[in-house]
Amino acid sequence: YKPKQSVTRRSADWVEVACGRKWEPFWCLVVKHFGLSAQPLAEMSLRYHNKVVIVTGGSKGIGRGIVRAFVENGAKVVFCARGGPAGEALEEELNSAGPGSCKFIKCDMSKEEEIKMLISVTVQLYGHIDCLVNNAGWHPPHKATDETTAEEFRELLNLNLISYFLASKIALPYLRQHQGNIINVSSLVGTIGQKDAAPYVATKGAIIAMTKAMAVDESRCNVRVNCISPGNVMTPLWEELAAQTPDAAEAIRVGENAQLMGRMGTEAECGLAALYLAADATFCTGIDLLLSGGAELNYGFKSQILS
Hints:
Largest sheet: 7 strands, parallel
Shape: globular
Strand content: 15-25%
Helix content: 40-55%
CATH class of the largest domain: Alpha Beta
């Protein structure tokens, strides 16, 4: 097919061809010229078409960005959260837009029986699992180590770390059948530390270590296990923590300035990182993908700790 006036331009997703003033994806022109069905070619552009994905803590923030990225790329997503309204609203929104689909399940990831239910419902619906994204967790208000109780630490470990272990353990028999993958969402602070957040940092550092250990074990079954460590990402939780400070606007400004790129990350960028690890990074296992805008670079300053 050779139009009279033809130039091309590249976008992030496809090469487009201009016929006169009308720009169209190249595959659309092929479809028109050869009389092919557009549906199979459209599906080829979806990076995780018909794959089954579980996302924990998927109704808000980073989890919401991950659910959205997978649905927009053709996946069948089961996602959970403790709160119902936000999850139900996201389910309705994404199912109406497609091209993938999603199912929301109300689930408390600190309870083993509910984790078992989540995995069981997914297998009953779709017969298998291709990808598990462990994301559910919480960042408690900042508090000095000597002001934190052992019980508070145990509760945080149960939600932030043990839930990841249990969900992985229960899902692994199904992931092994399809050589699937696990993505654990940790945090940059699991590597570099954070002021007045020792229990939280401990849970996130442990997630990174567990990711590497599981990657070693599951290489026997060709199940990849990887990790994402975001820096500051503007989410409802970040806004909530900022609101607890004397000056929320200043807290957000400082949070933005922590990255060399001068801004916070977005939910969408987190979603694309997870999609990359699941769909494209097929020779990567045991890695910790920093999504930090360069926050770990340059020098730290004593004044930041004393303030």
